[in-house]
Amino acid sequence: MSPETMPATGDNALAADVPFDLSAALKRCMNNQAFLDRLLVKFAAKLESDIAELLRHIQDANPQKVAFMSHTIKGSAANLSAEPLRAAALALEEAGKKNDFEIIPALTQTLVEQAARCREFVAARTGSA
Fold first, then answer.
1. Which residue segment(s) compose the domain that 120 sits in?
2. Which residue in 18, 56, 65, 111 is deepest, having the highest Cβ count within 10 Å?
3. Number of domains in the chain
4. pLDDT less than 50: residues of the chain
5. What are the DSSP calls for 31-100, one per residue?
6. Per-residue pLDDT, 16
């Protein structure tokens, strides 16, 4: 995919419903699109298992592990410029640190939705399942 045919990036990413700032992510990958796509596929696969682990910790009402897994997801999202997911993970991490199980369900829903957007985008972009 050439830069001209890539989905919108930067400030236009939110308007185009693209969960990644592809311009920033591509820059981190030294403008190597094939490398970026490989990272995106690995990110999507790891994200699925991270979300499953996070949900187990929420079910167990373990705020420290909720914060830890949210922090892990936040870091992965930041590395690939997935700002909406990063922001959702940050909010959940902070709620876990505060042991705030009143807000954790709503924040979890937001994070799960953002993660799904990321996985769907990666699948469409790379043809991966």
1. 3-126
2. 111
3. 1
4. 1-15
5. T-HHHHHHHHHHHHHHHHHHHHHHHHHHHTT-HHHHHHHHHHHHHHHHHTT-HHHHHHHHHHHHHHHTT-
6. 57
